[in-house]
Amino acid sequence: MASTAFSEELAKASLSEEGLGFFELKDSVVGDGVRAMEERGFKFNTEDGLEFGKQHVLNSRVMPIIESFFGDKPCVLAHWLRYIAYPGHFPSFRSGGPAAGRCVLVVFLIAKGSRITYWGGSHRVALPVTQGQRYLPEASESDLIAAGCQKKEETYHDGGLTISDARLHFGIEEGMVIAFEFATPEVIVIGKWPKMQLPDIPELKQKVADMGSSKIGTNFEFIIVRKRKRKRQAITT
Hints:
three-stranded antiparallel sheet; globular; alpha+beta; single chain; 31% strand
């Protein structure tokens, strides 16, 4: 299976305040890309890593949906990180329900063989949460059910992609995802989100310059990486 049908209009409707809060599809091209990154050791701060993000997230298919979610506000690719399975736990990337606002969006690139649970409508509910081991707010299954959230479990035999309101609760039951987190500049400043660091080399600067759009920025900083000098070994006779 190459991929399930992609619909920009359906994605935008699903991500509306009245929608389920997420849009997902099966996509073997994404699954292949995640596997290739795994084989390279998930080195995101390289040319290959940046190209991976550009190819699968900052592209002509996904960026219009990101821009539509934030409306007339700019946003920034603030963070990306790999998350492995954490069965039976249902975190979100932002708590607070309607009061928290549409300020953060997450794109999951899903590995082959992964199984993900989504709680549709949980972005519209201010649920009681606790801080989980991953420093994300977690809601209990009983509270999600009591709030009327719709549980949906999907298996991605060949990989896939999900675009989600960050307030949506989800669970990684099997496999792993690479999460790309987009936020408004105000959220990044208030939350004191750290910058993603890249080696200060021309090739990476050019890659970053080619990413995003007039409404989507990035949260990178370039640092000088000094080579460690090798200690001379004493010669004995």
